[in-house]
Amino acid sequence: MPQRITAIVVSITAVIALLVVGKSLLVPFAIALIIWYVIDAIALKIRGLEIAGMQPFHHVSVFLALLVVILLLSGMVQMIGDTIEQVKIAAPNYQHNVSKMLDRIASLSGVEVAPAIQRWADGLDLGRIISNIAAAIMGLAGNAGLVAIYVAFLLLEERYFGIKLRIMFPSADRYRRVNRMLEAIQVQIRQYVYIKTMVSALTGIISYVILLWVGVDYAPFWALLIFMLNYIPTIGSMIAVLLPTMLALVQFDTFGPFVTLLVSLGTVQVLIGNVLEPRLMGSSLNLSPLVVILALSLWGQIWGVTGMFLSVPITVISMIVLANFPQTRAIAVAMSENGRLKDSALRSQY
């Protein structure tokens, strides 16, 4: 038993060290893996489209899905670049509005603003803060070339997975059971990535309409940020609501837009996150909030901001894989919120 515990500790330490040392190669691969799953899920939907009883896109589904993803990512990068330039121009106005807001609060309450708060407001560089947020998102696309190479090779290797699996397991019965197990894992991961992406996109689109209606600056950028933060349960939703509402607080001369945004964006997050998404996702995303926080902290320490964005997808995929093997299912149960996992009909046969 002591030898086994020592081996486990050494293995975990070695894996963490590998993740830290190999960050420059592994981060692009993790991003490429998620993009590959998104392409695979979109291609599956395109493949199933019927026109006059025929499926005309069957043979070009992967190409069309890849084209959709490339256009979306290119648009995102262009929009973030434009936002950074606009922020540099508008930043002085935000600084002026912060001072006016503090003066208004002081006049309404009859209490003079503390010198420390006034010094903080004078030194607050909102332009730099928003630019840093945009730069952090741009960092996800910093290794675009390496990510593209990984995605290309994943798409090329996909056709040979079955052949390699058959060679690895020459026994027909063994091959059939392992293949069905891997297919079940693949289906669950694809379902999670697809549904989470679609739900996040819906949240971003509705939020974008609300931001335009209120008149908040950089509405497309905030909608994109909300889309990305929606991959992080609870914490991401809170940040997605607070950031644009705080901008509204310093952009406008009244508190009306701030309250409107806080209520409307919060309602969207609650309805989609607590009503729609659980109905679509089922038990695929049943992570414990404690596990979410630990994953954010761990991956944030290992891979920085990029790791925080990738932490929940990586953790969910890990939980799906662990849940499909009898030896590791207990770990998946411990990671879940209420212990209920999507049953695999294959685990009893493996």
Question: Total number of helical segments?
Answer: 13
Considering DSSP H and I runs of 4 or more, what fraction of the residues is helical? over 70%
Overall spatial form? globular
Note the main sheet: none
Distance between the termini: 26 Å
Nearest-angstrom radius of gyration? 24 Å
Tell me the number of strands. 0
| Order of helical and strand elements | HHHHHHHHHHHHH
Average residue-wise pLDDT: 76
What share of the residues does DSSP label as strand, in percent?
Answer: under 5%
Give me the secondary-structure category. Answer: mainly alpha
Low-confidence stretches: 344-350
Would you kindly provide a written description of the structure presented here, covering whatever features stand out?
The chain is mostly helical. 80% of the residues lie in helices and 0% in strands. The two termini are 26 Å apart.
Characteristic key phrases:
13 helices; mainly alpha; single chain; disordered C terminus; globular; about 350 residues
Q: How is this fold's topology laid out?
A:
Blueprint: H1 2-21, H2 23-47, H3 61-109, H4 115-123, H5 126-140, H6 144-157, H7 161-168, H8 172-214, H9 219-229, H10 235-251, H11 256-281, H12 289-323, H13 329-335
Helix pairs in contact: 2-3, 2-6, 2-8, 2-12, 3-5, 3-10, 8-9, 8-11, 8-12, 9-10, 10-11, 12-13
